[in-house]
Design goal:
Aspartate Aminotransferase, domain 2, globular, Aspartate Aminotransferase, domain 1, 11 strands, single chain, 38% helix, alpha/beta, binds pyridoxal-5'-phosphate, 15% strand, four-stranded antiparallel β-sheet
């Protein structure tokens, strides 16, 4: 677990902390007389049994994920959604008021939100006009500021839908001494191979994934963070002991037995994406339809706010991105079922500009 480069980046007081040790973490067997956690031994007031605490380190799930990703279980952190992975990662590395993170808007807002909640400075380096990393600006920033601990990259990027160029990410990984996060929430919808394959090359690489998208398990709240085992050790040190409930752990394990079904979902949703893109391109008032490697499509119109209101009036809810940098006039639509996609297109066709 010892990695002195990582140790130097972790908040100093966390390096000195011992992980919170619940009694259940110390005893690994399933049989025994469990009188350690002040649980109700008789049962639960509901029909199903809910009376025992869950596995604090989610070992069964981690073992299954480790064999899928060809990694070790101690390179995996499981969070209550990847939102929690982002939050714990920031709190592991960044000192309130002193440290900073970098985000590349337009991008998923949780990185900035989680940093601000801890009073951590957020530098914004806008993507270029074709939604790629502004490498020059990033390199300039990291050479100038020495308090930056984490750079967040989302690929495929939410809300633009495109993958971020592998070469550019490599440049950042090689030049930045801090942590580079690649959020692959939507990677299943792309043809790209996962960055988890390159964890052994870069000790500062962190990859985030989720069961919420292609697996269709958003309400189970399970996110995964893959990294050097030293990073995982310190994240485990500060996480809440029972951060992932037993139902979600079991559900996620079951989900991993249905990868074929997930792949079928991906094929169906990618076909839906193509339908939406093709049909949007035929509508005269739509100015631009962006390429997508995710389960959503970004498109541009003259007045996004008016169109958004019109869609709402027809009970169709999309994401209005008009106020985000570089996205004036843009709406993001998630790929729905076949019937939902057709209804969406039909309602759009009836819009009078
Ligand atoms: C890029 C990205 N990362 C992470 C998340 C959060 O996912 P989770 O449901 O695992 O918290 C989302 C949710 O929309 C997202 O778009």
């Amino acid at each position: 677990m010892k990695n002195s480069t990582i140790d130097n980046l972790i908040r100093p007081h966390i390096v000195k902390m011992k992980p919170y040790s619940s009694a259940r973490a110390e005893y690994t067997g399933d049989d025994g007389i469990f009188l350690d956690a002040n649980e109700n031994p008789i049962g639960s007031v509901c029909n199903e049994l809910h009376n025992r605490y869950p596995d604090p380190l989610q070992q069964n799930l981690k073992n299954a994920l480790a064999s899928i990703e060809n990694l070790k279980a101690n390179q995996i952190f499981i969070g209550n959604g990847s939102d929690e992975c982002i939050d714990v990662l920031i709190r592991t590395f960044c000192e309130s008021k002193d440290d900073a993170v970098v985000v590349c808007p337009p991008v998923f807002s949780m990185y900035e939100h989680a940093a601000h909640a801890q009073n951590i400075q957020v530098h914004e380096v806008l993507l270029t006009e074709n939604f790629q990393l502004n490498i020059e600006a990033l390199l300039q920033l990291i050479s100038k500021e020495n308090n930056i601990k984490i750079i967040f990259i989302c690929s495929p990027n939410n809300p633009t839908g495109n993958l971020i160029k592998e070469n550019d990410i490599e440049i950042i990984l090689n030049h930045f001494k801090g942590i580079v996060v690649i959020d692959e929430a939507y990677q299943d919808f792309s043809d790209n191979i996962s960055w988890t394959n390159r964890l052994s090359e870069f000790h500062n690489l962190v990859v985030i994934k989720t069961f919420s998208k292609a697996y269709g398990m958003a309400d189970a709240r399970i996110g995964m963070l893959y990294a050097d085992d030293a990073i995982i050790h310190y994240m485990n040190t500060i996480k809440m002991p029972y951060n992932v409930n037993q139902y979600s752990q079991t559900l996620a394990l079951t989900a991993l037995h249905h990868v074929d079904k997930k792949n079928e979902f991906v094929a169906t949703l990618n076909a839906g994406r193509k339908y939406i893109q093709d049909e949007l391109a035929k509508i005269s008032f739509i100015q631009q339809v962006f390429a997508s490697d995710a389960n959503y499509v970004l498109f541009k119109v003259e007045n996004a706010n008016d169109l958004y209101k019109y869609l709402i009036a027809h009970k169709i809810i999309v994401r209005n991105r008009d106020s985000a940098p570089l996205l004036k006039g843009c709406l993001r639509v998630s790929v729905g079922t076949k019937a939902e996609n057709e209804k969406f297109i039909e309602v759009l066709r009836n819009y009078i500009v």
